[in-house]
Amino acid sequence: MTEIVKQPARTIFHIDLDAFFVTVEQVLNPSLLNKPVIVGGRPEGRGVVASASYECRKFGVHAAMPLARAKQLCPQAIFLTGNYRKYSEFSHKFMDILADYTPCIEPGGLDEAYLDVTGCENFGSWRNLAIKIKERVKVQTGLIASVGIAANKVVAKIASDLSKPDGLIEVLPGREKDFLALGSDTVRVRR
Q1: What sign for the dihedral angle of Cα 83, 89, 90, 95?
Q2: Which of 3, 25, 44, 112 is the catalytic position?
């Protein structure tokens, strides 16, 4: 008789660095903290917003918006051209931290990744592991991360998006349908 072994439920983290390019600029130049900052170029040019601080987002500024429009919405903003080399260095530090927790990492760009932490229960609860990762990213890089925890990548990504900025949402197994219907009424932890 063949024994049936039940596989553990998958657990996926989506970890996303908040306002990544702007936050890197603020880490490197603390005088930019708590100010409206836009990375993407000069507003007189034809470029688009690559990243906007949350101080700019209050005025409706968002990524991919033409810089001229961003200037209209938030004329007090500080416009920076950005530096891919710096952002790449911070991204490598971020990914190295994540690799300490699981070998199953799927980067989604410089500032986000999916982690399959199934079988990594030795770190305690998923919530505690996510908080530990968020704190380590903050201490070692100065960057802020939001985390979504779920049984699949789609729900984890939605959860991390809803937890921004600097949040954590865990969607418990079997609660995905409720979460998708209700959004942020599920378990939410702010740090």
Answers
A1: positive
A2: 112
| Domains and their CATH numbers in the chain | 12-19+84-190 (3.30.70.270), 21-80 (3.40.1170.60)
Asked whether 165 and 19 are in contact (CB, 8 A), the reply is yes
pLDDT tens digits for range 109-139: 999 999 999 887 777 889 999 999 999 999 9
- Please confirm whether the linkage preceding 165 is cis (ω < 30° from 0): yes
> Does the predicted TM-score (pTM) go above 0.85?
yes
DSSP-assigned beta bridge partners for residue 188 = 169
Q: Is 170 one of the catalytic residues?
A: no
DSSP conformation letters of the chain:
-PPPPPPPPP-EEEEEETTHHHHHHHHH-GGGTTS-EEESS-TTSS-B-SEE-HHHHTTT--TTSBHHHHHHH-TTPEEE---HHHHHHHHHHHHHHHHTT-S-EEE-SSSEEEEE-TT-GGG--HHHHHHHHHHHHHHHH---EEEEEESSHHHHHHHHHHH-SSEEEE--TT-HHHHHHHGGGS-EEE-
Q: In terms of Cα–Cα distance, which of 61, 58, 14 is closest to 39?
A: 61
